[in-house]
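Format notes (please read before filing issues)

Several people have asked whether sequences and structure tokens are stored in separate files. They are not. Every record keeps both together, in the order shown below: the sequence lines, then the token lines. Line labels are part of the format and must not be stripped during preprocessing.
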Amino acid sequence: MTHLLLAPFLATAIQAKSAPWITQNLAPGISVSVPVTLVASHETPIDPRISRIDDWGGKVGNHSFIASITVLNKMSVSEMSSMLSATAVQAVNRPGNSLLDASDLLLNGWSGLGLRARESSQLNLASYSYRYGRMLVTVATFAPASDGQSKDTERFLHSLRLAVKGDQVIPGPHMVRFRLGSSNLSANFPCAPIRKDSPVSPSKGLGPIHSAIADYGMRSYMVTYQDVISQKKITNIAISAEVLKGFQATLGKQQPIAMGSDSGLKSTFTFGGQTIGTLVVFQHGKQVITVLEVEPRAYKNHKCVDAFLKSVRFGK
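Then the structure lines:
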């Protein structure tokens, strides 16, 4: 997906003075409203998971309007969520950019990600990306930061129409349950988690760390489990302190939380100035489980955090 690399193209794209807005059809069932006819271009995908990429761009004065459709080969919902995440993050994960706002989106039953950033060139970037069947659909704008929150930006972003109705009813990632290791532990992730084993544990009395990590947008979801090998009692608060020390985090609130039939400790924290996190530590039999979610402070929808925490369980 390269809709955010179109700046050179847009610099020479057809420019127009302010004109009546028109509806432009991008593909069957997909349209946007724009103040200028967008010029189409096509790319040859390198990723074998992608069959086609179509881009559109246009400019009115110093305001650029971009649309992009990436057609995917056969993928699971989990794989598509992963690619949606990577597409959206590409918007802001560049040197010199700073994240201004992030949100979960829902359009006619299809989930999406909204990101806004300030570019080093003093341009404001706003991007809405959605999963739509086997496609990823993105609309984005570039406008001078001095223009503030442009009405044209909001009108363009909210004009996107996806004709076929999806089945999602709330904004946020489509969570899928994955089993973790050979134990009966499982959790819901937005895409297939990356598994990793670490033979060394920072906490004394605990065995190797087995972890599962998945990203969605600018958020990360992680579950780890370890065997208790010490005869001495290991407390949830001590384990939490070790984890937060590794992040060099500033502790917020701590409170007890029920994790099924087990008692856990929930901690909120901040690190790096603009990142917040939630950590849950609990023990089940001879295992210690940590559940972690981190995200930029800019995110405003935290419903998925509690849903992720509550999804971690043993048994079927």
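For reference, the curators noted about this record: Confidence is low (pLDDT under 50) at residues 1-14. The chain has two domains: 3-162, 176-314.
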